[in-house]
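Narrative of accomplishments. A recurring question from our advisory board has been how the design workflow behaves on a single, concrete structure rather than in aggregate. To address it, we present the structure tokens for one chain from the evaluation set, followed by the sequence designed for it. No filtering or post-editing was applied between the two.
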């Protein structure tokens, strides 16, 4: 069974082109499934059947797994079963009839336009002491093996005279890029300088499944980019920086974990509710739709493979309209 797990992980990475995060999640789910199968008396992978799969999901549910987690685990089981059948490890695709629990999709929390503007201005209003709590603390290298910053833990004082200003310029660009483009935090941190077309104000993004898309950005983000490339990045650049656009305090590629702390820190400093990079992505999509953008265009900008993933933002806009109506209309 161990060999099957390793071969499946290789299939996810090389053939399905799944991200390292998705691959780890699916392999973890598979190990849990096979462990449950052994406990149910399956001595060999060929004995895996639909009864074992349903029993595994039922056990996960009794242990308190969320519906979204159960849906992902069912998807992992179906993906493995289909692969194992094609590879001759299973006589049939036993997980094909396996149903997924329908995940309850909550409306995402989004910022108002004025709150987003306050967050974008937060780096300009933040002094050095307030910024120390949001200093980079990058931990592990990304799946593609590119160098990231492994120093500069939170609270560590800067070492270079130009570094405080450079970090501010980096933070300003990070916030502007996330809100202007709606890219995922992993996509933003994975950007190289060569991915930015400044003449057309377009950034080339490598998204989920290796899908590439071009996303435009506005004038405020261009100003932040110009300042970063002219004065910020040269001050932080090190031999290991490579072509990375966003750098940590010690010169490596900015890590998504650090970027999340940066966003949360500035939101707190600006007196806003808890904000994550994905919250900025939700906000960008909602504001685009409220401003009259076409749903298909927003789908393309966000890199959603399905329009259903984008349609949730139309519900957010309707909820805002209802709230405004209830607050303002005398007959509401």
């Amino acid at each position: 069974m161990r060999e099957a797990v390793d071969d499946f992980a290789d299939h996810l990475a090389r053939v399905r082109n799944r991200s390292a995060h998705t691959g780890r999640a699916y392999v973890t789910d598979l190990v849990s499934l096979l462990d449950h199968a052994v406990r149910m008396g399956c001595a060999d992978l060929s004995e895996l059947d639909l009864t074992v799969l349903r029993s595994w999901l039922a056990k996960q549910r009794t242990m308190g797994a969320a519906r979204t987690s159960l849906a992902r685990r069912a998807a992992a089981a179906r993906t493995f079963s289909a692969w194992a059948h094609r590879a001759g490890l299973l006589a049939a695709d036993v997980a094909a009839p396996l149903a997924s629990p329908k995940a309850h999709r909550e409306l995402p929390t989004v910022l108002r336009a004025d709150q987003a503007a306050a967050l974008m201005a937060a780096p300009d209003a933040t002094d050095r002491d307030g910024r120390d709590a949001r200093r980079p603390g990058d931990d592990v290298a990304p799946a593609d093996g590119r160098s990231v910053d492994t120093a500069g833990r939170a609270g560590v004082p800067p070492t270079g005279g130009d570094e405080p200003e450079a970090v501010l310029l980096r933070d300003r660009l990070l916030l502007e890029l996330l809100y202007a483009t709606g890219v995922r935090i992993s996509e933003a941190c994975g950007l190289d300088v060569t991915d930015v077309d400044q003449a057309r104000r377009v950034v080339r993004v490598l998204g989920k499944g290796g899908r590439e898309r071009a996303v435009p950005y506005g004038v405020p983000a261009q100003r932040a980019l110009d300042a970063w490339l002219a004065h910020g990045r040269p001050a932080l650049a090190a031999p290991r920086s490579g072509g990375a656009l966003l750098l940590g305090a010690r010169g490596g590629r900015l890590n998504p974990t650090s970027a999340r702390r940066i966003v949360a820190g500035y939101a707190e400093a600006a007196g806003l509710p808890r904000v994550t990079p994905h919250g900025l992505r939700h906000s960008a999509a909602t504001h685009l739709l409220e401003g009259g953008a076409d749903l298909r265009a927003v789908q393309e900008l966000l890199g959603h493979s399905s329009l259903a993933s984008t349609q949730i933002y139309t519900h957010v806009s309707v909820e805002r309209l209802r709230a405004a109506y209830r607050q303002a209309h005398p007959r509401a």
